[in-house]
What we know:
The protein has helices at 2-13, 15-51, 107-110, 116-119, 149-155, 191-196, 202-209, 212-216, 233-248, 260-263, 265-303, 305-313, 318-349, 351-359, 379-405, 409-415; strands at residues 56-65, 78-93, 96-105, 143-148, 162-167, 176-186, 197-201, 219-227, 255-259. The chain is α+β, with helices and mostly antiparallel strands. It is elongated.
Amino acid sequence: MYMIKLAWIYVHARIINYVAVLVVGLTLMASIVVIGVTDGMLVDMERRIRNLGEQVAISFRSPVAEEKLSAVPHMDGVRGFTPLIRDYALLKHGLITEPGVAYGIDLKKEMQFSSLAEHLQDLKLDTDNPQWYAPGTNPNGDSPAFVGINLAERLGLKAGDTMTVTYSPPGSDKLISRNFFVSSIFSSGSPLKDRNGFFISLADARKLFMTAAEQEIHGVSGLSFFLNDPQQANNLEVPIIKNVVPALGLSYRGIYSTTWQRRWKSIHDGMAYENMLMEVVLFFMNISSGFCVFAVLATLASRRVKDVGLLRCLGARRGNTIAIFLFVGLFIGLMGIVVGVGAGYLVGLNLSDIWEFLTGQPFYSPQLFGHTSPPVIYVWKVAVYAGSALLISLISALYPAISAGCREPVTALKEE
């Protein structure tokens, strides 16, 4: 018991010991805040991608009459589905032309499941009775569209502008062009939709992309499924296909399917890899804090030579002396963990407010992120960082402790 008390006295004996505590704490705080920010960005991007639609998407080679969709059975794990027409087209505004991906949707059905309404910058939608544009804002009566923010920037578009959408049917030299009224710009965080996507109504998508016969049957070329647990998209893809294809009387040969997890795998894996590299860098930061603990304890051991000699003369064993200095390292590590975890949570959860107060600028640039991505602090990661900080503190204390414990009593007193 005296070893713990003596170690605690040594911790309080010098200001430099509190510097070591602060270094351990600041390093741990930095780890929590940085990884919390990067994890938050990853989680937020994933949430926005999967909640904008097409968690599981099925496309048909030949359009299916919309009335047949009532035959699609209810499936376990599926919240619902919406009809979809997706195709490629050219968008023109002024002298600028850009390729885009059109998403023809039933806005009312989409609002039952999708988070699209949250991402519109210029229009508020009533989810019970959504309208493509506010009354009186479309004087020419052009077909309405929601355009992705990056696509709009490249075209120089803003809400209220008119753009021309041109489509060339496969195997034909004919060009079909229609004017669309930009009723709102959306910023979802979904890379493909923000960069190249625009939403139009199912009726307008049929007029633009389908033949007269396909328009006659109110055809749709795909379905967008929304799941109870979007993380199960890859597992539910095959069961969904096996239920949908027979119900619609289709052939499996004419079916194409995908999931949000596969579509965004490269982006998700890239961000996850960056997070891993960041964690490696932070690990080396923890090691650097260990050198501070090592220097402090080495100094402490050299300053306590007389104490070591007296303890050994009074009957203390080498192991007891070693344990005293190890306890000092343990206390420094534990105190640093308390400081670091507390400061990490405090700064991490209020990072945006702190940054804006200090700089007057938002922490997340609206041009880059579109939304605030609050840090996500995982308890298990905090536990790992705290455990590694404590382990590094103990390892750093090991050599000074052994060095002090191996001194012979007479030699220690003679050196003093």
